[in-house]
Amino acid sequence: MSRVKWHAFLVTIYLLTKSEGWELTNTSTPIIEFKNVGLSYDDNEVLKNIDLSLEAGKFYTLLGPSGSGKTTILNLISGQLTATHGDILFEGNIINDVPVEKRNMNTVFQDYGLFPNMNVFDNVAFGPTIKRMSKTDINAKVTEMLDLVKLSDYADREINELSGGQRQRVAIARALANDPEVLLLDEPLSALDYKLRKDMQYELREIQQRLGITFVFVTHDQEEALAMSDWIFVMNDGVIQQNGSPEDIYDEPINHFVADFIGESNILDGIMKTDYLVHFTGKDFENVDAGMRPNERVEVVLRPEDLDLTTIENGKLVVTIDDQSFRGDYYEITALDDDGNEWQVQATNKAEIGERVGLTFDPEDIHIMRFNESEDDFDARLESYEDDADDAKE
Amino acid sequence: MMPKSKRQRQFFYIIPYGIWLVLFVIAPLVLLVFQSLTTPTGHFTLHNYAIYFASGTYLRMTFNSVWYAFLITAVTLIVSYPMAYLLNQLKQKQFWLLLIILPTWINLLLKTYAFIGLLSKSGTVNNFIGLWGVVPQQLLFSDWSFLLVAAYIEIPFMILPIFNSLAEINPRLEQASRDLGANRWQTLRRVIVPLSMPGVKAGIQAVFIPSLSLFMITRLIGGNRVITLGTAIEEHFLVTQNWQLGSTIGVVLIVAMVITMILTRDRARRSARKGR
């Protein structure tokens, strides 16, 4: 057993003895759980052995490129698709065979799916009407929902009289009118223009917090995911690559895919010579990572905003400015080092194209990614750094 | 020499069909109305209409025409809607659709005669049930055989527009309806059927209007037991040579068709015009 695992084991035992009566219950049941869920069409495995657990009342995002399986997960939760294997649980009960209409969740579709033969009011009233609520209750519900999405004056409008953003709001109101415990959102903002999308991100987050229900949001837009979510699942090739808070995923990507997909990254091949010493671009650098085999081949990630331009003497690396564009609050600079590696830098100071400058960064800005590291091992490694940091303080 | 202005060019394109339209649509219509309003010597009169509306026979024929056209339409619709719905969910829809359209390429009279062969006393159906010792039945010359053959001929014209309007419905709407708690039946009733109404109306037009003036089938299959306005017109023009009264019935029939058109007009067009 490695030192890290042994440590984690001892901590677990310690916590177990402290918990009252050795009980692990009353940690609330997850609202949605996937246990080894997979989905295949013929020989094509769309989703591979997914395990996940969602707590009630949080804003979750499934983030990934198209074809990564994120919408498939959403459709499995809603019941539009049936898993090839594995169990899906809702509040602790297996719901594999519960049909779509009997699940207490509703969906906001990418193309909205509003009924063109009904006006705004009737669209929002659809769910309550099916539930056979009384006329007064339906009226009250629809009014409340249209208020929530700020469309109170639009009840009598036909769907084809609405703009894209207004249709979006009607779709949200319609899905929420059923009082779902979980709201599923399938790339709902992708058809809106930039400004409107920003506003809706903010508003959706606000609605989620006001209602306190669980949102599961699917998107391929990493900025959107970082801005809105409590917790992100990054997906690729039918596998969850990494899950964590937006900060965790941005600061500590687990592998090349995540580092590349979330934000801008400089990714280089490197070697961990010993603990706290990494070698890349022909030089050794002090860093904060440890626990790897001596001389293990790794990938090194440096975020553009963590890099600064300085004089050649003060630089840890020397680079030549290749391109530069002004982005309002910073300059986006492309530079080449002597090995021919391309560096993305977000600098506050301007440089001249062709100029040779120094590049500087702090040891903690160097993120090390091991090849084929599982999420559990990765999390354990990061935790051990925190412990080491605590030890160092004492 | 090509005409220059846009209007002149458009006029140019209209000429071939325009000649057709004037000779075979407008002129006959004018003649029909004219004949119905004149005596054989060419004086204006409303006498023909008076005869028509005073006669119990003609009114009964009118009622018969409308009633049988209604029955044919109803039978056709009941058979066609579920079929069109099913067709839409099949994988090889184009193939099955082709099978349904195929009979329409064959001449109407040929198909009608084929049914005489099937339904006559020594026909295929009687031979078949004869295997169980059933005595040959009188199948031809009945209301049922008339309805059967008429519906058989009209079914493709009903399926096609309904199929098209169902195919246009975004499958997402069915998903959304289920997602909002509606079961299959509620989804069909509240979403699919209302959205396919334009197709249903087009189908009703395509079946009901031609059915008003059916006459060959009424004679060959119905054995002239059912006399419709189509039969009456044929009799007046070819047998009794009373063109004036024949024209009058023709005018009444055309008015009935126009009324049907107005009643089944697509209301969606109105809201679409308002919206876009």
From TrEMBL, chain A:
Gene Ontology CC annotations of this record: ATP-binding cassette (ABC) transporter complex
Keyword Ribonucleoprotein: no
Pfam families to which the protein is assigned, alphabetical: ABC_tran (PF00005), TOBE_2 (PF08402)
Entry keyword Transport: yes
MF annotations from Gene Ontology: ABC-type quaternary ammonium compound transporting activity; ATP binding; ATP hydrolysis activity
InterPro entries: AAA+_ATPase, ABC_SmlMolc_Importer, ABC_transporter-like_ATP-bd, ABC_transporter-like_CS, Mo/tungstate-bd_C_term_dom, P-loop_NTPase, Transp-assoc_OB_typ2
First-tier enzyme category under EC: translocase
Top-level lineage group: Bacteria
Protein name, entry field: ABC-type quaternary amine transporter
Source species: Leuconostoc citreum
Highest classification ranks of the organism: Bacteria, Bacillati, Bacillota, Bacilli, Lactobacillales
From TrEMBL, chain B:
CDD domains named among the record's database cross-references: TM_PBP2 (cd06261)
Residue span, ABC transmembrane type-1 domain: 62-264
Key words, A-Z: Cell membrane, Membrane, Transmembrane, Transmembrane helix, Transport
Subcellular location: Cell membrane
GO cellular component terms attached to this protein's record: plasma membrane
Membrane topology: Multi-pass membrane protein
Predominant place of localization: membrane
Highest rank taxon of the organism: Bacteria
Residues annotated as signal peptide: none
Transmembrane segments: 12-34, 66-88, 95-116, 144-163, 242-264
Keyword presence, Signal: no
Single GO BP term: transmembrane transport
Family designation: Belongs to the binding-protein-dependent transport system permease family. CysTW subfamily.
Protein name, UniProt field: Spermidine/putrescine ABC transporter permease
